[in-house]
Write a structure and sequence with these properties.
The structure is a homodimer.
Chain A lengths: L5 H15 L25 E7 L8 H15 L4 E6 L10 H6 L5 E4 L23 H10 L2 H10 L3 E8 L6 E3 L13 E3 L2 H9 L3 E3 L3 H9 L5 E2 L4 H7 L7 E4 L8 E7 H5 L3 H35 L4 E4 L2 H21 L1 H23 L1 H8 L3
Parallel strand pairs in A: 1-2, 1-3, 6-7, 6-8, 9-11
Antiparallel strand pairs in A: 3-10, 4-10, 5-8, 5-9
Helix pairs in contact in A: 2-10, 4-5, 6-11, 8-10, 11-12, 12-13
Chain lengths: ~375, ~375
């Protein structure tokens, strides 16, 4: 889809959703009051739009968004219908935040680090280099104060956030040359966004921004030397095994990326309580579904990549990981030093992580090293 | 609560729920049919009972069951109210399966390995020694065929199962003497149920069954030498740090125990589709909530146990884990050899695990060993 400018899109979207979200009254006004029974709903119907930062029907992520909408529609018996748009269909992918904040769409499925330009602290709610993994993030968000901080930050933008998926630990990317030492990053042109890109710069490389559709060609033609993307499933679909022989792990820059559902706060507050609870509950279900689906599909496509014998799957050398971790700490420190809300979030994030790691070290870590060894 | 015999309880329960689940018609019969809109519901109200295998309001597990009921009630605007009973309140804890199968209660929150006497294959749907962890179990259930097999097995008992929580990797238990070699299990009397108990027997120990309320006294008086329970939070509440100095990890016998929601199939089938979807969605939410809550509380109580300086937290020596794994493989093999459905489930479980472990090894395992090292 051809890009038109942002204002045109937002205008178009506003027009579309002003119509789309008109609440229709139905015949039955079920305002029953029974002994202590909650007042349920007025039978109002809602037609909402969800914009996403993924291409339409994008594997796992777009599918998760569609499933979320389906669950809500079925639970509400059709009272809340959500139309899911791919990035660029209603607004360009990276306009999703503004669109929902301003009410041009009622909700979006995205990942919070896309909005670092709005508020740098958003990055802690999706992924920071050498940050927490999925299981730890879920515990922090739910019980370590993470969710409250996220809500506090998003309230400033008239948004309500929900955790709504996780990629799990990602891969480190596709390289045309081997990485043997930290020095091999000198002069390396890699497609890697966000804080990961800043870390790469500290290591002497150049972080190149490429839209999804251009990465393959850029890597093939040597415009870039390397690219990260997600994991075996998405990377295989992108065709990377055809043009880069070295597939590195782990994805130090995204040790788990939380996906978010964000809802326009005024729209959310105007919903009856039962529909609010359905959104919250379906988001939590999608949170688990997306991680499990990534795990299952990545498992399958890792096998396919191996079976084709074109790819060397390699671990970054210890020295390289140690160096990248050092640079990552510097990047996080700079973020925390320059943004007070990031400092506040990082203090909660880091404290929780330190404590939980003591628990992970005698449980999940031992699981992978001993119990589940195959 | 004093125990009365099983028949009395089931009779009592049947009487109670026959009343409790009478569907009440409300004033509004919302059988609206709009252009393609699903037929929603007839406004029927359902009053259901959930029995559990936990003591009333039991931390994390009982709390998770109560939350599940709350979410369903709020989403349904009170159309489906679920009363949660602790074990022994309506039926004895270990009668939950029969109670729900026979319709004496509509649902139960439990763990499938309690029903090994009904069908040995149930154990694969909660925990087997040296089995999968939470993240892998979730992926297997959702995308590896696990859930379909579980449904197939439970359908024989007029039950519909849902994954509804996970303990994560448990602890190995509290010991009065150090375990230095596999030989230290010779003659050891340990409270450890199920397949873990069979493994202990192979190692020369005795698996003793104690109800939860008796474990403390038995361990204090030396009737038993060791006990497993869950993790730091529950174990601390039980008082174990006061009477056993050695706290071993990992919980090789339960590397993650799935909790289940089981629903009487006839009752479930009789629900309108929207309420069915709410049950399914709330169960999936509880699935994540319970794991995160275990993680957060165990993190907190591990610190408390450490701060009291009474407990030595020790890892089972490698030789011990290797020996227990060997015995576990024998125990699983015996199970698979003697029960055709267990064989069928194990084939799916084992194949999925083998494939997913290749993925875990380059992601989560590296996370714990390198990225998230603290």
């Amino acid at each position: 889809m051809e890009k038109i400018n942002r204002r045109q899109f937002l205008k178009k979207a506003t027009a579309a959703t002003a119509l789309g979200s008109t609440a229709l009254m139905t015949a039955c006004a079920t305002e029953e009051k029974e002994s202590g029974a909650p007042v349920v709903h007025s039978g109002k119907k809602f037609r909402w739009n969800m914009v996403t930062t993924w291409p339409p029907k994008f594997p796992v992520l777009g599918e998760g968004a569609e499933l979320f909408a389906k669950w809500v529609e079925e639970m509400s018996g059709g009272r809340l219908k959500i139309h899911v748009y791919g990035g660029g269909e209603l607004v360009p992918a990276l306009e999703a935040f503004d669109a929902v904040s301003q009410g041009a769409a009622e909700m979006a499925h995205a990942s919070a680090y896309y909005w670092a330009g709005k508020a740098p602290a958003t990055q802690f709610f999706s992924a920071v280099p050498f940050g927490m993994n999925a299981q730890q993030m879920n515990a922090w968000l739910l019980h370590g104060g993470g969710m409250s901080l996220w809500e506090e930050l998003y309230a400033k933008f008239n948004l309500v956030p929900f955790a709504c998926g996780n990629t799990g630990v990602q891969m480190g990317g596709w390289f045309r040359k081997k990485i043997n030492t930290l020095a091999d990053f000198q002069g390396l042109k890699m497609r890697i966004p966000g804080l990961g890109g800043k870390v790469l710069k500290k290591a002497g490389g150049s972080a190149i921004l490429s839209a999804g559709g251009e990465i393959f060609t850029n890597l093939e033609r040597g415009v870039i030397d390397a690219t990260e993307w997600v994991g075996p499933y998405h990377d295989y679909i992108m065709g990377f095994p055809k043009i880069a022989p070295f597939y590195y792990y782990p994805g130090w820059h995204e040790p788990s990326s939380v996906l978010e559902l964000m809802v326009n706060k005024s729209a959310f507050d105007s919903l009856p309580k039962d529909l609010q609870m359905m959104i919250q509950t379906a988001a939590a279900r999608a949170n688990g579904w997306i991680l499990s689906t990534f795990d299952a599909k990545n498992t399958e496509y890792l096998q396919i990549i191996k079976s084709e014998n074109k790819t060397q799957i390699l671990k970054f050398p210890d020295e390289v990981l140690a160096g990248l971790k050092r640079f990552s700490n510097e990047v996080i420190q700079e973020l925390v030093d320059t943004d007070p809300f990031s400092k506040k979030v990082y203090e909660s994030y880091h404290r929780f992580r330190e404590n939980m790691t003591a628990w992970s070290n005698i449980t999940e870590k031992v699981y992978y090293n001993d119990i589940g060894k195959m």
